[in-house]
Design goal:
Two copies of one chain form a homodimer. By secondary structure, the first copy, chain A, is mostly helical. Helices cover about 55% and strands about 5% of the residues of chain A. Chain A binds a DNA duplex through α3.
Chain lengths: ~140, ~140
DNA sequence: CATAACTGTTACTATAATAGTTTCAGAATG
DNA sequence: CATTCTGAAACTATTATAGTAACAGTTATG
């Protein structure tokens, strides 16, 4: 577990908020469900808040709730919000002038992997938070 | 640079082999192009060899070469060969019995992310090593 | 108005994946 | 039989991430 799991935690959090809509939920409540510390939850929550996906209240009756309807939030929104790393990363190295592959592979890779990244994001865009919630409730 | 770059290095290596087809290439030559150690190249090369994508010769005139035509090798083949990590990983946590989200989000996520992973792999399957090589040569 | 309870943020530690190196046994060529 | 390669194992260093702790700022409430 050293890969980035913030995305899936974000989905978990948002599904929780969607299920409990209306009630005031604290980071501690969410942390219990995700099984991590409230602080970590808040860190992710802050990103979601900056992205306009959740709203929060500070102060004593502090809480958080969805900023929009679950139907109008896609997994791509969450992916972008938590700023998860790209699916692929290109190795960096100093170009060997004598070698055409070494000089040009990077551009070729960027082109190819950009396409793949787009395909992935399109798939994420097609899944709404509402669908996830419905899946969760069906069980 | 702590994310997995083996995939892009594998593409680099394979593009090199495709460009120099026929010549006998050693891990040291490839390492110079990628700008890493021959040993690291061999580690990746070994995976590609196990996957049937390259063939190697041991002994003094040791070398390696493509096992198939570049047209018949897709980026998905390379992706599978180096056993790159999945695009998403799901956080693991102990289920909170009282919380339906905590209990069922994992299955819902697996379903959704499985779809996304498939989309990504389909995109990779559509790009051949030959295309990469052609991109590299065009510059 | 004082207290309690929350958020937002920063700073820190621990862990785990990965890159990269070193080393050596085994194999084939000349 | 010496040279030079692969294959593989063992090791270190680096870095992203998870996770924790601490605290200032904010607000509801008695």
């Amino acid at each position: 577990m050293a890969v980035n799991t913030q995305f899936s935690i974000a989905v978990h959090i948002m599904a929780g908020l969607a299920c409990q809509r209306g009630r005031n939920i604290t980071s501690a409540t969410l942390a219990a469900s995700v099984n991590t510390s409230p602080s970590f939850v808040r860190r992710i929550l802050a990103k979601l808040s900056r992205a306009g996906l959740v709203e929060t209240a500070t102060g004593k009756a502090g809480a958080c709730w969805l900023a929009k309807d679950a139907k109008d939030i896609s997994l791509l929104d969450l992916y972008a919000a938590v700023d998860a790393p790209k699916a692929f990363s290109i190795h960096n190295y100093t170009e060997q002038k004598a070698c055409p592959v070494s000089c040009h592979i990077k551009t070729a890779l960027q082109k190819a992997l950009g396409k793949t990244q787009k395909a992935m994001e399109a798939s994420l865009a097609g899944i709404s938070l509402a669908q996830i919630v419905s899946d969760v409730k069906q069980r």
